[in-house]
Amino acid sequence: MSAALRIYLRWIRDRRLSTLMWSLGLVVIVVMTAAFYPSLSESGGDIFADSSGAMSTLLGLSDIIDPSSPLGYLWIGLYANIVPMTLIALGIALGSAAIAGDEETGTLEYMLSKPVTRTAVALSRFAAAATILFVVAAVTALALIASIPLFELGDDVTTTGADGSTLTQPGATAADVAAGTFASFAVGLGFLGISYLLGAATGRKGFATGISTAIAVGGYVLYTLSDATDSLEALTWVSPWRWYIADAMLLDGLEWDVLLPFGLALICLLVGWQWFLRRDLQNP
Amino acid sequence: MPAVIETEGLTKQWGDLVAVDSLDLSVEKGECYAFLGRNGSGKSTTARMLLDFIRPTRGTSRLLGGAGSDPTVRARVGYLPGDLNLPRSMTGNDAFDFFGGLSGTTDKDERKSLVDRLDLDPTRPVRELSTGNRRKVGLVVAFMSNPELLILDEPTSGLDPVLQEEFRDLLDERKQTGATIWLTSHVMAEVERVADRVGLIRDGHMAKELSMTELRHQTTGTIRLAFPQVVETSAFEGVAGVTGVRVEDGEIVVTIEGPVAALLSRAGELGASHIETEKRDLDDVFLELFDLKGGAT
C-alpha cells in the first residue's frame, strides 16, 4: 500500500465517529423537515405567503418558487439554508484540519519524518477531507430520498388560482434531491478548499477556520442585504450564495455552474499544496 | 565515504533571532555524536533542519549522502522528536503499524523485542499514556526499522533511571551494528557513556567540539592528603601528572591529570595517613563550559 493511501485511509479512520455524528445530525434534520410536509401542505403554505422581500431573500424565495409545492418546501426548509450551511461548516472544519490541524498538534511533523513526501500528505489529506464531505452529503441525500414516499413529497400538487386556472406542480424526485444535494456539496467543497488553502499556507487552524467562516457568513449577509436593496444588487455577485441561490439546482436541475466551486477547490488545492511545499512547518 | 551527517554554514534566522548560526557539522558512519546545549540553544532547530521540517536561511545539510527531504533517505533514518506528538486516538500498536507501514518496516519481532525491553503496554491509547510511556512508543518507532542513522532529540527525557539505562544499552547495541547516532541533550552525564564526540552549542553557535576522551581530561581530579607531620607543598613538585599543590585546612590538596601512581607513591614515602579523592563530574564541566560569565571556552 502506498504511503499516500495509508495517510488517506488513516485520516478517514480517525474521523469515523465525527463523520457518523455529522451524518446523523443532517439525517435527523432532513427527515424531520420532510415529516412536517404533510401537515404544512394542508395549510396551503400560507405561513410563507406574507413574507416580505428581505424575508423572501433570507428564505431563498423568489417569484417562481411556491413554498406549498414539495420542491419549494424542501428548498425553503432545507436547501436554501440548513443543508448548504452545514456542509459549508463541515467543509471548513475538514479543510482547516487537513494540514493545519495536525501541524498545530505536532503529529504532521512526526509523520513527515517518515519516508513520505509533503506532496503525498497534502494531496491525500485533501482527498480524505473531500471524501468525508461527500459521504456526509450522500448519506443526507439518501435519507431524504427515502423520506419522499413516506411524507407525500413525491405527490404532484395542483393549486387553483383566483381566476379558476389550475397549476400542477410536480412532486420531488430522487434526481431533484440528488441535484440539490450535489450543489450543496459543491459549495461545501469550495469552502473546504478555502480553509485548506489557508491552513496549508499558514499552518494555523484557528486562522484558517476563522477567515473561511467569515467569508461564508459575510457572503451570506452581504447577499441577503444587498439583494434586498436594488442599488446594491450588483454586490451579490461577490457572494458565493448568489451563485448557489440563483441557480437553485434542487428546483431547476444541475447546471454547468455547479463546476465553479469545484474549480475554486481545485485552485485552492494547487495553491495550498505548492505553498505547503515551500514553507517551514510551524513549531508544534 | 561521505559523512553520514554533513552541514556547511547551516543557518536559521527568524527576523533578528539567529537560532542556528553557521553550523559546520560532520558525523562519520558508526559515530555517536551528542549535541549538547541549554534549552533554546538551537539543538532542536538543527534537528528540524536536518529532516527538512524547516529550511535553512543559509547553508546546506546532507543526510546519508542525500537530502533530508528525500523519502528514500528518511527511510534509513529513525527519528525521535524532543516533543513527541502522536495522534491521540492511536494505540501503541496502531502507531507501530501506521508509522512502520510508512517506513516499510515489516519486522514484527524487532518491535516486540523493543516493546518488551521498554516494558510498554502497546494496547493502550496514546491519550492515556504518561509522558514517559509516550516516549517509549516513539523510541520503538525510531528503533524498530533498524535505521542506519538515529536522530534523537532529548531521548531520555521523561524516562526513569532504569529505562534510561536500558536505552543506553540499546544505543550501545546499535553502535555495535554500525548505526550512526546523533542525539541532543542538556545533561552531560547522560551522554557520557554513549557518545564518542560532543558538540557544545550555545546561542546557535558551535562553541566547542571535542571527543569524549578530551572531555574526560577536563574532569581533572583533586586528591586531598593528610600527614601526621607537616609536609611542604614543594615535596610534590615534579611528580608526574601533578598540575597544582596547595595547603588547605592543614592538608595538602593536589590537582592531577592522568595516572595517579606516581603521586600515591610519593604520598606513601612521606607517610600519608589519609587520602581522599574529589573529582569534578561531567556536569560540573558542562556548567563551567556554559558559564554565563565566562561563556563557552
Describe the overall structure:
- The complex is a heterodimer of chains A (284) and B (297).
- Chain A is mainly alpha-helical and 284 residues long.
- Chain A has one domain (3-278).
- Chain A contains 14 helices and 2 strands, in the order αααααααααββααααα.
- Chain A has a two-stranded antiparallel ribbon with strand order 1-2.
- In chain A, a hairpin with a 5-residue loop joins strand 1 and strand 2.
- The relative contact order of chain A is 0.15.
- With 297 residues, chain B is of the alpha/beta class.
- Chain B folds into 2 domains: 5-216, Rossmann fold (3-Layer(aba) Sandwich); 220-279, Alpha-Beta Plaits (2-Layer Sandwich).
- Chain B is built from 10 helices and 13 strands.
- Chain B has helices at residues 43-50, 71-74, 92-103, 108-117, 131-143, 161-176, 188-192, 212-217, 261-269, 282-289, and strands spanning 5-14, 17-27, 32-37, 58-63, 77-80, 149-153, 180-185, 197-202, 205-211, 221-226, 242-248, 251-256, 274-279.
- In chain B, the strands form 3 sheets. Chain B has a 6-stranded mixed beta sheet with strand order 5-6-7-3-8-9, sandwiched between helices. In chain B, strands 11-12-10-13 form a 4-stranded antiparallel beta sheet, with no helix packed on it. Chain B has a 3-stranded antiparallel beta sheet with strand order 2-1-4, with helices on one face.
- In chain B, helix 3 packs parallel to helix 5 (131-143).
- Chain B is elongated and about 75 Å long.
- The chains are: A mainly alpha (284), B alpha/beta (297).
- Chain A binds chain B through residues 1, 3, 6-7, 10, 14, 102, 105-107, 109-118, 280-281, 283-284, and chain B through 48, 51-55, 69, 71-72, 74-75, 77, 79, 81, 83-87, 89, 98-99, 101-104.
